[in-house]
C-alpha cells in the first residue's frame, strides 16, 4: 500500500455499543495493525439531540475491555486533534459554503411547519430534483432575497444539490463495483440550522483532514455512499477519497433482519459488550462481560461473524487475528448470530487460558468466599473445575463448595436408593477417613473401593451419595479430588452432616 494506513472507528455517543459496532471497531483495528497503520477513535456527536450522558465513556470502556487500544483518540490526543466533532464545529461551515460557491449546494429556508405541510400533502415527499423548485430556497429565490434572509439571520439549512439521473459508482473492497442512480437520492442536509454539520458533511471533512486511508463501516451506510462520493469529488477530488469497505450485517439467529437489542431481550442473550444503564429511561441492558464472557472469547467470536481465514480454525488470539486478517476473507452476506456458538467460544477460551490468567476473573466471581483461602488453594480449585465452566459465572456453581459448605443438599437423590447396608458403609468409611494420615485422592479412593468390596456393594451405588455429601448436588470434578482438596476435617464434617439428615 502506497500511503500510510489510517483507519477510524467513529461511533456516536447515543447509547450502549451494539456488538455490530464493536465488530466494526475490531475489523478497523485488525486491518491497521496488520498493515503497520494507525487506529483512530473519533466521536461523532454532531446530533446533540441524541447525545446520551455516559455513552462516550462507555465506548472507551468497551474498547479497553476488548483490548482494542487506539493510537489517537479524544482521550489520547494526536496530531489531528480535536477528535470530537462537536469541538470541530467551526471547520464545517466553510466547507458547506464552498459547496454553495461551486453551485453544488444551496440554502434552504423552509420552516419545520412548511415541510410538515408538504409531507401531509404529498405522499412519500422527498426534497429532491423534482420538488426543490417548489420550495423556499436559494434556487427559487433571487440573489437579493437570499442575501436579505441571510442578513436578517433567518434560520436555514444547507442542502446538497443532487444531480438528476446520473450513475454514481465506486469500488467496494468487499462487494466490488457498486452503482447508484442519483435520481433516487434526496437533497440531504449538510449543515443544520444550529450550524452543526450532519454526518454526511462532517465525515467527509474529518476523513480528509485526518488523512484516513480506508473506511470500514456497516452495510447500512451503503445508501449514503453516493452523497459522500459527490462531496469528495466537489471538495477534495476523488483521487483523495479513502478506499471503502461495507461490512456485512450481523443478523438475527433466524437470519431474518439485523440483530437488535430487542432480539436479545426477547431471546435472552446480550447484544451489548458490557452492561449499559440508560440515564434517560433507567433501563439496564446486560452485556457479554457481565454475563460471564472473557474479552478474548468475545473478540474471537466477533471476528468469526463474517470472516474466516480460509481454514477450519476457529480459536484465535488477538495477535493471531492481526496476522491472519484480510478483507478478501470478509463475506458479503450477513452473518447469523448464534448465542450457543458464542458460549462455545467462551468455553474453549476458559479451557485454553492458564490458571494464572483465570485467577483475577474467578476471584471477582467468588469475591465473598475466596478471601480466606490461599492463592495456592484457588489455583488447585480452578485447575479442577475450569473445563466444566462455559461462562465465568459458572465458577460460582462449579467451585463455591470448595470454599463453603453447600447451602442445599439433594437428600432426595440419596434417599431413592438408601438402605441399611449403605448407612453402615458410610459410618465405616467415616472412621477410616478420620484415621487416615496420608490424605490424598489416590489413598482415599483406595480406602473407599476396598470398603465397598468388604461390604459387598457396587462402587457405582456409593459414588453418588458420597458426591452429594461433599457437593450438595450431582455435579463436580472427580469426587476423591474434591475430598483431597477440601481436607479431612471438612470432608468428615460434611459426611456426618448428611448422615444425620438421613436419620430424620
Question: What do you see in this structure?
Answer:
The strands form six sheets. The chain has a three-stranded antiparallel sheet. Strands 1-2 form a two-stranded parallel sheet. It is mostly helical. The model has no long low-confidence stretch (mean pLDDT 95). It folds into three domains: 177 residues, Rossmann fold; 160 residues, Glutamyl-tRNA Synthetase, Domain 3 (Glutamyl-tRNA Synthetase, domain 3); 145 residues, Arc Repressor Mutant, subunit A. The N and C termini lie far apart (79 Å). 44% of the residues lie in helices and 10% in strands. Helix 1 links the parallel strand 1 and strand 2.
N-to-C span: 79 Å
The top level CATH class name of the largest domain? Alpha Beta
Provide the CATH superfamily of the largest domain. HUPs
Q: Return the structural class.
A: mainly alpha
CATH architectural category of the largest domain: 3-Layer(aba) Sandwich
In CATH, the topology of the largest domain is named: Rossmann fold
Amino acid at each position: 500500500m502506497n500511503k500510510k494506513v489510517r483507519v477510524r472507528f467513529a461511533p456516536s455517543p447515543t447509547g450502549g455499543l451494539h456488538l455490530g459496532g464493536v465488530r466494526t471497531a475490531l475489523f478497523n483495528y485488525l486491518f491497521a495493525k496488520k498493515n503497520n497503520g494507525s487506529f483512530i477513535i473519533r466521536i461523532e456527536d454532531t446530533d446533540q439531540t441524541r447525545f446520551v450522558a455516559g455513552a462516550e465513556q462507555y465506548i472507551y470502556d468497551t474498547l479497553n475491555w476488548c483490548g482494542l487500544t487506539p493510537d489517537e483518540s479524544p482521550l489520547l490526543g494526536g496530531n489531528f486533534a480535536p477528535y470530537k466533532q462537536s469541538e470541530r464545529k467551526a471547520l464545517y461551515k466553510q466547507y458547506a459554503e464552498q459547496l454553495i460557491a461551486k453551485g453544488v449546494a444551496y440554502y434552504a429556508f423552509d420552516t419545520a411547519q412548511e415541510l410538515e405541510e408538504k409531507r401531509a400533502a404529498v405522499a412519500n415527499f422527498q426534497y429532491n430534483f423534482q420538488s426543490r423548485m417548489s420550495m423556499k430556497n436559494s434556487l427559487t429565490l433571487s440573489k437579493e432575497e437570499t442575501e436579505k434572509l441571510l442578513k436578517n439571520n433567518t434560520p436555514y439549512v444547507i442542502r446538497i444539490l443532487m444531480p438528476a439521473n446520473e450513475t454514481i459508482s465506486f469500488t467496494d473492497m468487499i462487494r466490488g463495483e457498486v452503482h447508484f442512480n442519483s435520481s433516487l437520492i434526496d437533497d440531504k442536509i449538510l449543515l443544520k440550522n444550529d450550524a452543526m454539520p450532519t454526518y454526511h458533511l462532517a465525515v467527509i471533512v474529518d476523513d480528509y483532514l485526518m488523512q484516513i486511508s480506508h473506511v470500514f463501516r456497516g452495510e447500512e451506510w451503503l445508501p449514503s455512499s453516493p452523497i459522500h462520493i459527490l462531496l469528495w469529488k466537489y471538495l477534495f477530488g476523488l483521487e483523495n477519497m479513502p478506499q471503502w469497505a461495507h461490512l456485512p450485517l450481523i443478523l438475527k439467529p433466524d437470519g431474518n433482519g439485523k440483530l437488535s437489542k430487542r432480539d436479545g431481550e426477547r431471546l435472552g442473550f446480550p447484544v451489548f459488550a458490557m452492561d449499559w444503564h440508560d440515564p434517560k429511561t433507567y433501563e439496564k441492558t446486560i452485556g457479554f462481560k457481565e454475563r460471564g464472557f472473557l474479552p478474548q472469547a468475545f473478540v474471537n467470536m466477533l471476528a468469526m461473524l463474517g470472516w474466516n481465514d480460509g481454514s477450519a480454525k476457529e480459536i484465535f488470539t488477538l495477535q493471531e487475528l492481526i496476522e491472519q486478517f484480510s478483507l478478501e476473507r470478509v463475506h458479503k452476506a450477513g452473518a447469523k448470530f448464534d448465542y450457543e456458538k458464542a458460549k462455545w467460544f467462551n468455553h474453549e477460551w476458559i479451557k485454553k487460558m492458564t490458571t494464572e490468567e483465570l485467577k483475577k476473573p474467578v476471584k471477582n466471581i467468588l469475591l465473598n468466599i475466596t478471601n480466606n483461602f490461599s492463592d495456592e488453594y484457588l489455583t488447585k480449585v480452578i485447575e479442577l473445575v475450569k473445563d466444566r465452566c462455559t461462562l465465568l459465572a459458572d465458577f460460582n456453581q462449579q467451585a463455591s463448595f470448595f470454599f463453603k459448605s453447600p447451602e442445599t443438599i439433594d437428600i432426595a437423590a440419596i434417599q431413592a436408593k438408601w438402605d441399611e447396608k449403605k448407612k453402615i458403609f458410610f459410618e465405616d468409611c467415616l472412621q477410616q477417613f478420620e484415621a487416615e494420615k496420608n490424605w490424598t485422592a489416590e489413598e482415599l479412593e483406595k480406602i473407599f473401593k476396598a470398603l465397598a468390596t468388604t461390604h459387598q456393594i457396587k462402587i457405582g451405588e456409593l459414588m453418588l451419595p458420597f458426591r452429594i455429601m461433599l457437593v450438595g448436588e450431582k455435579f463436580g470434578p472427580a469426587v476423591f479430588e474434591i475430598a483431597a482438596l477440601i481436607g479431612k476435617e471438612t470432608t468428615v464434617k460434611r459426611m456426618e452432616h448428611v448422615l444425620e439428615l438421613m436419620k430424620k
